[in-house]
Amino acid sequence: MSAPDDQQPAEATETAPAEEAHPGHASTRPAAPSVPSPPVPQPPAPQPTASRSLAPVPGGAAGWLADRLGWDGIEAGLGKHRAPRRSFFFYLGGITLFLLLVQVASGILLVLYYRPDPAHARESVEQIIGEIPYGDLIRAVHVWASDLFVACLLAHMFTVIARRSFRPPQELTWLSGLAALIGGIGLAFTGAILPWTEVAYTQARVGSQLAGRTPFIGEWLRRFLRGGEEVTIGTLGHAYGFHVAVLPATLTLIVALHLFFLFRKPVVRADAGDQETMPLYPDFIVHQAAAQTGVLVVIMTLAIFAERPLGPAANAAQSTPLGSVPPWYMLPIHAIVRDAPRELLGIDGPRFLIGATCVLGVVVAALPFIDRRGSKITSWLAWFALAALLLLAVHALE
Amino acid sequence: MRSNSLASLASLALATLALALAAPRAWAEPAGAPAATEAQPAASSNPDEVKAALRARNLPTPTNATNTCASCHSTLTDPKLRAPAHDFAGSVHRDERIGCVACHKGDPRDPTVAAHSKTGGFDPHPTHAEVPEICGGCHSDAAFIRHINGRLPVGQLALYKLSLHGRLAAAGDTNAPACSDCHGKHDILSPSSPRAPVNRLNVAKLCGGCHGNPKMMAKYDIRTDQYDKWSKSVHGQAFQKGNANAPTCTGCHGAHSSAPPDTSSVARACGRCHEEEMGFFEQSPHSKGFRDRGLAQCVACHGNHDIAPATALLVGTTSEATCMKCHSHDDKPRKVASDISDLLRGARDRAAAARAEVAGAQTRGLHVPGAGFALDRMTTAELRVRGVVHTLDPSKVEARVAAVDAAAGEVFQLVAGAEATRRTERRGYYMALALATLLLGTLGLKSLQLRRRRPGGS
Amino acid sequence: MASNDDPNNVPRRDVLGAAVGGSAAAFALAVVYPVARFVEPPSRPSGGPTMVGKLEEFPLDGAKMVMVDDRPVLVFRLQDGQVRAFSALCTHLQCVVAFSAERRQIECPCHRGVYSMDGQNIDGPPPRPLDELLVTVNEGSVIVTAAR
């Protein structure tokens, strides 16, 4: 609250009508008027604008900063807002965003030393790990957080489906979230290519070839991802440009839109009662901070104690090593393309399955329009799909 | 301005006219250009005069009119007669200024069979003993050959005549090679061409063709295992791996002199490349000792064709050591051998320990920046120890072994430094993790507190 | 001010507004087109003969991997002297295949595809045989020609 002291004697304040008549004579009260005197005078409303006087602000440096920032106004504003009171799953979105920020920060540090050409890429990563002080930690953080990021993205999407939060009026939030999922997986995919190790090279090759089986746009997509017909230095350059510039910029925009849509049509209305909401400040912010610090502790533990060795350098003239598997989030697809029949209904096997996946993707995107009421069937289907994907992933590792 | 443009036009016209008049004179044939009839060689078959005429000839364009041999022989159906013309056209000698007459003589302008007349000096089949002189007629004539190619050597004939090959050939032995046996007859290629039999890629097979033939060599009591021994030797192996420095037969024996053997110093042959070792050897007591006993220096310990990679096992007092072949009962040499052997073993062990240290660090996941360079420096120091062994002076060997120790010490220091850095970093990580966990704890407690304070519990 | 009730009277405001919109759209296209062409990767000229080594460098009755035009190629030198070359990119999803000397067949480690030594796809997901490339041996040098 702003100080009720008489710093602005000239400005209008809410006082008892009796004192108004003689501004300079606040101490002398006139005779009691005929009107019953009003109750205790209200304290003056908080002033959002900074002080215009040069008189010193009490409270030292902190008080000065609070005054210049208008901190009281901010605090009051935050205090007014309410946040939804939900279970832990509600925090997954915030955790995912936090992981994205961790990736951006560690990525910016890594980009200072990484060299994006096939002759030097792996060497530069080795240099980061071996020679740059704390490089091994920052690289390990980036690698582990990327896996956690994709995991939280998928978990967030899964909980939204399972809890049916995609219902109208959340359509735009849902669609922007799916766009963010595509951007996030794109980031993970392009990032894995950058070290240009054997695994990275195989991933670039097989991943772009698989994308090439998409109906209609497949050929173009394959050449677009590869930066040409074959996997060459152009592919690494493209992956680098996407990973460092195009996708982060696009994803920032999409995430901003996602949050904007979320706040325009909140999951819980701000005026729902105390049982449904909590104050944004300090409660919600502290809970978010705790959750994100928890994620940070997990990342740091993994980065310090678990190894992610680099692997041998890519060699185009070498056979793909036996036992190559794609990253874990691609394992179900790996199982499908490995064991799918060569032909399904007269169409080339993988092409049919990728097409079917695309159709499924369209269905998932249109969920808010298909299942307007959020029926329990959707939840059951989501759990079923999760079980199927896990089984496929296990099968892929056999 | 009108007058100015008129003036410019006039001067331009005058210039063009002047140019047109001067042109024929500027681009006319030089006055000294020989007319078609001038430079024909005199109708002579005297080789010197033919050569002089060839030398004097300036015309660059060859025509069959000046080498009628080829123009007729290339149309003949008998392969024996056609092949020489065909081969010659692809050889290094394919120049009308040389032509068939440079070796076979005769009249190059006579298109009839009369050109074959022996009275004209024509010699279709020079004998084996005549060949060196025919080739040497041009190739040891410095004044002549430098007009053809200024980089060609001129000492081949002289060296050849002094060699055993040359002496036997001059005495009429057709087994001994003359020029054409190695270089070819009509299809001679420059030695730098990879298809030439005398190119360094092929010369070992060329020499081995005769020197590996037991029937041929039996007459001279020469062994026939040189090529096999050389292939397995350190030189042969390096050569097969494509090392351009590795010597083949000519690298040690020379191309035309075929010496060694028949040389006063084998060490000079080896020292062409192993210069430092040769210098050390000549300082050592072995130099005079070997000379007095007629031992062939380097060959006495290392062999000649079957040279094995030189390891520390050569030196010492064990039964396999080379020193013990002569010195098994001599006290002082035994002491020297044993001292040097101990020093070498010490260097080897220390270097191996340094390498193991780096390898161990790598398996532990520790990156040691600069380790590669430090190991290279140590390897260089090790190589330098090998040469100094030839001095047979333990103190000199010790000095170079000390360099190996120093380089190895550097490697150990680098690894220790990397470990220390890593320990410090890890301590920092643990502390950061502890602080993060502390923060998590306090935030968690605060969360719980807020939760309890809210109406309705969670 | 134009009267909105009169149908014959087209307000100037709307025409100008439409003109602004139209020119904005046209300009946007003029910007998007070069960007789209830029992003589309250029195609490099490829194909034509490549010398991949000397005949002696290829093991008899075995296979060796070489690079032709940024693509890995398996070159076989058979007992009867024949030399054949196949693209080493699996026709399934382009993993790089390997030759198994024990089983005398070409195998793809990614999804367990199998090809015969003729390049025919005999087992697993690959839908087509391996592409065969033209091989000539010229003066002891092996020359592989990639299709354009």
Model description:
Helices cover 60% and strands 3% of the residues of chain A. Chain A has 398 residues and is mostly helical. Chain A has one domain: Up-down Bundle (Cytochrome Bc1 Complex, Chain C). In chain A, the strands form two sheets. Chain A has a two-stranded antiparallel sheet with strand order 1-2. A two-stranded antiparallel ribbon of chain A has the order 3-4. In chain A, strand 3 and strand 4 (347-348) form a beta hairpin. Chain A is globular and about 95 Å long. With 458 residues, chain B is an all-alpha fold. Among the domains of chain B are: 192-309, no CATH class; 331-425. In chain B, 59% of the residues lie in helices and 0% in strands. Chain B has helices at residues 2-26, 47-56, 68-73, 79-89, 101-104, 131-139, 142-148, 156-162, 164-170, 179-183, 203-211, 214-218, 226-232, 234-240, 249-253, 266-271, 275-283, 285-293, 297-302, 324-327, 331-363, 371-388, 394-453. The model of chain B is unreliable at 26-45 and 57-64 (pLDDT under 50). The model of chain C has no long low-confidence stretch (mean pLDDT 83). Chain C has one helix at 12-39, and strands spanning 48-54, 62-68, 71-77, 83-87, 98-100, 105-108, 113-115, 121-123, 132-138, 141-146. Chain C starts with 11 loop residues before the first helix and ends with a strand. In chain C, the strands form two sheets. A six-stranded antiparallel sheet of chain C has the order 1-10-9-4-3-2, with no helix packed on it. Chain C has one helix and ten strands, in the order H-E-E-E-E-E-E-E-E-E-E. Chains in contact: A-B, A-C. Chains A and C meet through helix 8, helix 9 and helix 12 of A and strand 2 of C.
Please provide a brief summary of the model:
Chain A has 398 residues and is an all-alpha fold.
Break the fold down into its secondary structure elements and pairings.
The complex is a heterotrimer of chains A (398), B (458) and C (148).
Chain A: H1 17-20, H2 60-69, H3 71-80, E1 82-84, H4 92-111, H5 121-130, H6 135-162, H7 171-193, H8 198-211, H9 218-226, H10 233-264, E2 277-279, H11 280-305, H12 331-339, E3 343-344, E4 347-348, H13 349-365, H14 367-370, H15 376-396
Antiparallel strand pairs in A: 1-2, 3-4
Helix pairs in contact in A: 4-6, 4-11, 5-6, 6-7, 6-11, 7-8, 7-10, 8-9, 12-15
Chain B: H1 2-26, H2 47-56, H3 68-73, H4 79-89, H5 101-104, H6 131-139, H7 142-148, H8 156-162, H9 164-170, H10 179-183, H11 203-211, H12 214-218, H13 226-232, H14 234-240, H15 249-253, H16 266-271, H17 275-283, H18 285-293, H19 297-302, H20 324-327, H21 331-363, H22 371-388, H23 394-453
Chain C: H1 12-39, E1 48-54, E2 62-68, E3 71-77, E4 83-87, E5 98-100, E6 105-108, E7 113-115, E8 121-123, E9 132-138, E10 141-146
Antiparallel strand pairs in C: 1-10, 2-3, 3-4, 4-9, 5-6, 6-7, 7-8, 9-10
